[in-house]
Amino acid sequence: MVKIDMEMPTSCEKCPCYHDEYEACKVKKRKLNWIEYLKGKPEWCPLIEEK
Known about the structure:
Structural class: little secondary structure
Distance between the termini: 15 Å
Order of helices and strands: EEEH
Mean pLDDT: 81
Strand order of the largest sheet: 1-2-3
Number of helices: 1
């Protein structure tokens, strides 16, 4: 596990793991569909907020 001190992104577009050119997640290597893109954080997102 890697812990990074940052605010939890509210959407994939604002996430450092988001690849603009391919509209995909760099970590999961998964292309986002437009519904996931608009909804915010998808269920399959590997980021976990720590309390």
